[in-house]
Amino acid sequence: MVGNAWPGVGRMSHCDRAADRQAIEQLNDDFCHHLDRGNVEDFVALFTEDALYSNGPRVLRGEQQIRQFCIDRTRNGPRTSRHFTQGLRIEFTDEKSARGLSAAFTFSADGSPPLDSTIPAMVADFQDVYAFDGVRWRFAERHIVPLFRAPRQAG
User: Fold this and answer.
1) Could you tell me which of 73, 75, 65 has the C-alpha nearest to residue 35?
2) pTM to 2 decimal places
């Protein structure tokens, strides 16, 4: 994989939904990986230029707001997090778009590991809209819908 482009994706027929599914699964894995490791530019590249990204009351629109969110996460020092997703369901709405739903849970806290908490900070649904730009699948929308939150967790 070079950057966020998957070999062969741009050259395949979109009748091959197995490859599309695999690419979208990788996109979801990359979301967790890059967010947890603070890879700001790699994280931003997962979204379309005008993407909508929300988590509860926080709503971000476009690459610049998403980038600033990533930078702000560590403004007051190290932040440790691990995001996990499960049960991804994908529905293709046309050749270049799809919707997804998965369950997620997150461990997060300010500071460097090891941290003393083993309680998930949040359990949520990830509600997604994916867009294929001719080369790769990206998030056009990601809505994090919290279902459970640990006390005093800002998200």
Assistant:
1) 73
2) 0.85
